[in-house]
Amino acid sequence: MSALTLPARPDPEGDAGPRPIPWRRMTGVTWRQHRIALAGAVVLLGVLSAYLWIEGTSVHHAYAAVTACRPAGSAACQDAAATFNATWNDMSIPAVLLQLLPALIGAFVGAPVPARELEAGTFRFAWTQGFGRWRWTLAKLVPLAVVLAAATYAFSVLVSWCYQPYMATGNQDLGIYGDSPLVTVFGLREVTFPAWTVATFAIAALAGMLIRRVVPAIVAALAVYAGLVVAAVALLREHYLAPLVTSDSNLAGTAWIIGQWWTKDGRFAFADNPPDSLVNQFCNFAQSGPTGKGGGGGGGPASSGNPLAQCLGPHGYTLWTSYQPASRFWPFQWIEGGWLLALAVLLIGVTVWLVQRRAA
Fold first, then answer.
1. I need a surface site. Which of 33, 38, 68, 323 has the fewest CB within 10 A?
2. Structure pTM?
């Protein structure tokens, strides 16, 4: 006895099984799971924005009083200038504390994305709901990163407005370079502040995937952020573009002096300060201190005409200075923002790869 068999009818949906859940349906899941962290970040930025608006209004009024005062040398104008200068005492501490924002926001929002599911064990359920592991990870990380970038960009615009009067008085270097009173504001501008936040978010997400615990991942992300900031400020920024070299001792006060050295008759003589014996031989005054080293700000003594250069120059000695001009402020912003965003994309990619490889 034989039985007839019929070929199986093709599946109208295809042989790949059910279609994956649409991306738009994951948006609601991401919002419900992370709305508290996002709301906390928005509230924090909102409170700080209100403070900066109040203080910034006071700074702008003080600056307007100085610019409108005539004659500039009168006692009233001198008092107005002193009042404006005193406003920095109120704004310098916030400028330092605001540097913590990218680390705090990025770490506290990014670390729980993978770590909370792994710590609670709910990843076994979340990763088997027909959406796919890598799509699940991207649907969480990318929208959260975009929201953080948008929020911090808006906040950085307010920061720039708040500190604009100080920039107008010749501090446009904003501390890429050394001793400027606005040394910390460079990282809070419209390019670097969102970039640092997104980079920290990506670092925290990867740490959460590796450590699989929320609190340790946050601590690890903050530590990596601190190391990255030190590396950027102390090692990387001065090399974003090749420094300019000049023998002019009257550099602008906003120039970032990278290094100085002396030559005699076109040949290298010594670095930094000349020997005391040489100064005593050719100059009739005591050596007045360093001529400026790498990382020095405000142009150093070279910015106002170096007296050592003036007395040693007739004897064949020339002071050379390598520096970064303040006109490179925005190129430096884009360079730093670019490598930070590239780092964030790389770390998010590594996180997705690890999620895809992890056994359920």
1. 68
2. 0.79
